[in-house]
From TrEMBL:
It comes from the Eukaryota. Signal peptide: none annotated. Keywords: Membrane, Transmembrane, Transmembrane helix. It comes from Tetranychus urticae (Two-spotted spider mite). The keyword Nucleotidyltransferase does not apply. This is Gustatory receptor. The chain crosses the membrane at residues 64-88, 113-132, 178-201, 207-225, 232-249, 291-314, 321-339, 397-419. Coiled coil: none annotated.
């Protein structure tokens, strides 16, 4: 009976994974010669996944899309509180019928609470995406939609100049492919780790417990698929927009250096440069403002609970290998997401700092054909950059840079030692 249930479940999931990955080969990911049609095909495939998993409604498909997304969110919140209930109760009847995955573990409550956190964090992203749609404002993906339009129509110019557009195109393509494979990898690994855990527990439980656990496992797999895809999709979109910001700032820096080297530049060239810089700064400030609460919530909640996972992994002993692997994988995944976003934000800040210094040099080297309007525009730009640095912000007020990254690492280390000192 056990082999039949596990075999059927594994076969069904492998069939779904094979169908999803059929059109994506490893060769296409490492292909360095990415044409416009290659990128357009990848973007269309990504948008198809967005619609099928009810991630984000770019095209305003209608109220049914949003109702389905809301239903997915509500069901996952119920699932999260199901694990929260298991983390605080000792009632054996509730534990039995709730299909507790960690029923034989001495740290059952802590492990169920960590599963609760693993569902709540993607739910935060889903709430944010629903809020963006309901607010009725311009989507934060409008800049990527505009870039897609410029790929389709050669006469349509992109708002932000990209000196190395081919390299950005390759980076965009690679980010989409990485999302597709990483999502399937993360989802598959979590599934296998849960199945491994249930298989080991079966040696210490009855057939009825195994059946109930498999039923709850099926519910978890079905409901967690769209919510996890939404969370990883949002992280991928942030990465792509970060890459876009980095290349746009680099292009402005190159253009500024060209103006400096010219010595005598026209009013049109200067005004064009400052217009592009102001447009990019406005877009980055707009994204920071729109995503302020999800950034600060995810960083605070994610960092705290990631340290809690590390504490449970290093300070408690588990006889079940599946539990150790599950905790290790969860810790690594959250850590990678947090520090990858921190690192990309730091790179953007460093590139923006170089641009700031270049603009300062430009303000000294005015040229003969300079006028008062351009001089005031330069002064306004320098004052704006001095009052608020150009880059990524957490909560729209914590600037992401080298200092922030170091401070985050030290604070997380201090929190870990605080747990060790007070709980042990």
């Amino acid at each position: 009976m056990k082999e039949f249930i596990l075999g059927y479940w594994c076969n069904s999931k492998m069939h779904r994974i094979q169908r999803f990955c059929f059109n994506f080969s490893i060769k296409s990911i490492i292909n360095l010669n990415v044409t416009k049609n290659d990128l357009l095909s990848a973007i269309d495939a990504l948008e198809g996944l967005e619609r099928s998993a009810r991630i984000f409604d770019r095209r305003n498909s209608g109220k049914y899309f949003q109702l389905q997304s809301l239903l997915i969110l509500i069901l996952n919140i119920i699932l999260a509180f199901h694990f929260l209930l298991l983390s605080i109760t000792d009632n054996q009847t509730i534990i039995f019928y709730s299909g507790d995955f960690f029923v034989s573990s001495s740290e059952r409550k802590v492990l169920n609470y960590i599963l609760h956190c693993g569902i709540i964090m993607p739910c935060m992203v889903k709430i944010f995406l629903l809020y963006l749609h309901q607010s009725g404002r311009k989507s934060f993906l409008h800049i990527l939609d505009e870039y897609k339009g410029s790929l389709k129509e050669s006469n349509k110019k992109f708002s932000y100049s990209l000196k190395d557009e081919k390299l950005f195109r390759k980076s965009y393509y690679l980010a989409i492919k990485l999302y597709e494979y990483i999502f399937i990898g993360v989802y598959g690994v979590l599934l296998l780790l849960h199945l491994t855990n249930i298989t080991i527990i079966y040696n210490h439980s009855t057939l009825q417990q195994l059946i109930l656990q498999m039923i709850h496992m099926a519910i978890l797999v079905i409901l967690y698929y769209p919510i996890l895809s939404s969370a990883l999709w949002f992280v991928s979109m942030l990465l792509i927009m970060g890459i876009l910001a980095y290349f746009a700032i680099d292009s402005l820096k190159v253009e500024c250096d060209e103006l400096i080297s010219l010595g005598n530049y026209t009013r049109h060239h200067a005004e064009s440069f400052f217009y592009k810089q102001s447009l990019l700064s406005n877009w980055m400030d707009w994204v920071n403002a729109r995503a302020a609460w999800i950034f600060i919530t995810f960083y605070a909640y994610g960092c705290f609970h990631n340290i809690l996972i590390l504490f449970c992994l290093t300070q408690f002993k588990y006889d079940n290998l599946g539990v150790k692997m599950l905790l290790s994988f969860a810790y690594t995944l959250i850590l990678a997401i947090l520090y990858a976003n921190n690192y990309s934000g730091t790179l953007i800040g460093q590139k923006a700092s170089v641009l700031h210094r270049s603009i300062y040099r430009l303000s000294i080297n005015t040229g003969k054909l300079f006028n008062i309007k351009v001089a005031l525009k330069k002064l306004q730009t320098l004052e704006r950059l001095a009052s608020r640095k150009m880059g990524v912000y957490i909560g729209n007020y914590i600037y992401v840079g080298n200092y922030t990254t170091l401070l985050l690492a030290l604070e997380c280390g201090s929190l870990y030692y605080l747990f060790c000192a007070n709980i042990n």
